[in-house]
Every structure is written in C-alpha cells, then in structure tokens.
Amino acid sequence: MPVPFLRFMPPRRWVLLLLVVATALLVDFLRLDERAWFWLKEGRLSVAEQQASIWLPGYRVVVQGRTLAGLARDETSGLSYNPASDTLFTVTGRNPQLVELSLAGEVLRRIPLTGFSDPEGVEVISGGRLAIIDERRRSLTVLTVDDDTRSLDAGDYPSFDLGFADSGNKGFEGIAWDSLNQRLLLGKERGPLGLFSLPFAGEDGAAGTLQALPSKRAFVRDISSLSFDARTGHSLVLSDESRLLLELDGQGRPVSFISLIGGLNGLHRSIKQAEGVTMDAAGNIYIVGEPNLLYVFSKDAPVVLPTQVE
After folding, report:
1. Which InterPro entries match (predicted)?
2. Which among 214, 159, 167, 161 is positioned nearest to 188, based on CA atoms?
C-alpha cells in the first residue's frame, strides 16, 4: 500500500530523501567494513600482545539476563565496581536512585537521589567517593557514600558543568576512573560522539579542564558506558546502538572487541539497550541492559544456559 505523504512529495524532496537514506547506508557500510578489517587485524595479535590486554575475544557470557529485582520501572543506567565492598553501583533515571548490587545481581540497597534530573552514569573514584553524571543537566557531581548513607542531595556536594549546552539528550553518559592518572574518563553519547578526560586533584580539589581524547578510530555509533582497567591501562567502550563492547589502549586505538548479538560469545539472545559496563577485581565484565538485566562475562568460561531470575 503506498504511503500517502510520499505520493505527493515534490521531486526535489524525493532526491533529498534518497540522498539521506543512501548516506545512512554508506555510513553503516563503512562501519561494518572497518569492523571487518579490524577483526582480521585482531586475529594477528601475538599471544604476548593478547596477554598484555583485556582481550575481549577470550570472554564468554556466564550470566544471561538476570533480572534486577524491584527495578523494573526505574531504568538502570551506568555501572561501577566498588573494590572496597566487592559490590556494584548503578543509577536509575526515571526515579533517580543510587542502587548497590551484589556481584550476583542482588539489590542490596536503594539510595534516593535528590536534585538530579537524569542520572546516566556512576563511577567509584576513591576514598568512598562516587561521581554521577546528570546527562540532561550536563553536570558531574562528586558525592561521599558510606555504609550508613540512606539518601543523597546533589545540593550538598560539588558539581561541575560539562559544557555542550546544546547536546540535549545526547550528552555525557560514559564515565570511568583512571586510577593510574587520577582522572575521570568521560564519554559523550553522540552528536558528536567523543571521549574526554577530566583531571581530579585530591579529596576536595577542584576538577581540571575537560580535555578531548582520540576517539575517531572507535568504530561505534554511540557511547553508552565506559570502564577502565588499571592492570593494562586500557578502557572498555560500550555501545548500545552498535551492540558492541570495544577495548581501547591508552592512545585510544582499538585493541579487541566482542559483539553483544545473540548467537555470539555464548549469548543466547542479544543484549538490548546496553547501558552500563564495569570490571571487577578478578577481571570479570558486568553489563547492565534495559529493562534492568545483568550480564556477566568471564574469560575461558564454559557455555551456560539462559538465566532469568525474578
């Protein structure tokens, strides 16, 4: 059946529409072509080079979509590992909360967040501090959290303007703590996509100047989350739209990647709306996807059956 508005579209608009579609298809083709080229290059890395990296092709899923009980309507986003407690932190956007999870995905506590509009990323920094990105307000807030914390108000803590006032809902989502260089790594979702660093001095020191990092070789459509591995000095870049987890070295060059599409890397189903990634002390990788499902990847792991826990 013909679409009514297309039937009466002027020829010039037809040409414009075809150009837009052709451009989109070409961009996707170039990304796929770049990914295929890199896959061939990746296969030529030596064993020593693989051992010096995170080496994502060595990972397989061991937990497939475990439900984060009680968070079904809250839209979790972002993920961070806390080495002090051996737990995970995530944030929720629709009903702003900081949520602490066990490594098995059990909800341990929910801390209401006041003064936040759209928290999209969370990262454990040091000294009991957490940094939370509010995408819509383009701000980063550094808070102090301990075992007795039951609520948090952004107005009680320092916040930093991340700029890009016209980014709307395409602002910063990814955040990771580079403990080797005492700086935050930040990922701007898209429009344009970009990686940045933000030096952070001392317990109460002000943040430095936001600095752009190399990201042109990161063949992803968007950045939804970041994680930093101090053992290798490499970063993980999670892309929701590309359904991809990418490893970058310290110069922003791709090292390895895995697809988050069902049928690959032990996944029975694709990870939809991947919104957060982190690594624990043992090197296990955790990914949270909407609607509030937890996935865990381990190196040299056996194939497991789908896991769905209410």
Report:
1. 6-blade_b-propeller_TolB-like, YjiK/CarP
2. 167
Domain ranges of the chain: 1-44, 48-299
- Residue 263 predicted with pLDDT over 90: yes
Pairing of strands 87-92, 254-259: unpaired
Using CA atoms, how far apart are residues 121 and 135, in angstroms rounded to an integer?
8
Q: What is the mean pLDDT of residues 247-256?
A: 91
Parallel, antiparallel or unpaired: strands 97-101 and 107-114: antiparallel
Q: Which residues of 298-308 are buried (b: 16+ CB within 10 A; e: fewer)?
A: beebeeeeebe
Phi, psi values for residue 95, rounded to 5°: -125, 90
Select from 127, 131, 70 the least CA-distant residue to 101.
Answer: 70
Q: Show the 3-state SS of the chain.
A: CCCHHHHCCCHHHHHHHHHHHHHHHHHHHHHHHHHHHHHHHHCCCCHHHHHCCCCHHHEEEEEEEEECCCCCCCCEEEEEEECCCCEEEEEECCCCEEEEECCCCCEEEEEEEECCCCEEEEEECCCCEEEEEECCCCEEEEEECCCCCCCEEHHHCCEEECCCCCCCCCCEEEEEEECCCCEEEEEECCCCCEEEEEEECCCCCCECCCEEECCCCCCCCCCCEEEEECCCCEEEEEECCCCEEEEECCCCCEEEEEECCCCCCCCCCCCCCEEEEEECCCCCEEEEECCCEEEEEEECCCCCCCCCCC
CATH topology of domain 48-299: Neuraminidase (2.120.10)
As a whole number, mean pLDDT of residues 230-254 equals 93
pLDDT, residue 199, reads: 86
